[in-house]
Design brief:
The protein is mainly α. Helices cover about 70% and strands about 10% of the residues. The chain has helices spanning about 15-35, 35-45, 55-90, and strands spanning about 1-5, 10. Strands 1-2 form a two-stranded antiparallel sheet. A hairpin with a 2-residue loop joins strand 1 and strand 2. Helix 1 (about 15-35) packs antiparallel against helix 3 (about 55-90). The longest helix has about 35 residues, at about 55-90. The chain starts with a strand and ends with a helix.
């Protein structure tokens, strides 16, 4: 998998758990995309927050999960950056 580390596009060797982490982030973001229409309906007045309370709660939970998983992902990238910097110094 390719990713930007230290401003450079590099090959990053992810373990299976790391690949699963990236996949989970993508899945959660897709759930947000799939339910974006609800915000439009509420904004336009054709639906109420009460009608979609369960989905709104789900969206809040998904955002929280995404933030937590992205912190983990950032730590992985930081470790990769440190490895790259270390290897460049040799």
């Amino acid at each position: 998998m390719k990713g930007y580390v230290n401003g450079k596009l590099v090959d990053i060797e992810f373990t299976e758990p790391e690949k699963d982490l990236v996949f989970e982030i993508q899945q959660l973001k897709q759930k947000l995309v799939d339910t974006d229409y609800i915000a439009c309906k509420i904004a336009e007045g054709s639906a109420t927050t009460e009608e979609y309370a369960d989905i709104i709660a789900d969206r809040q939970r998904w955002r929280k999960e995404i933030n937590e998983l992205e912190k983990e992902y950032a730590e992985i990238l930081k470790a990769e950056e440190e490895k790259l910097t270390e290897n460049e110094g040799r």
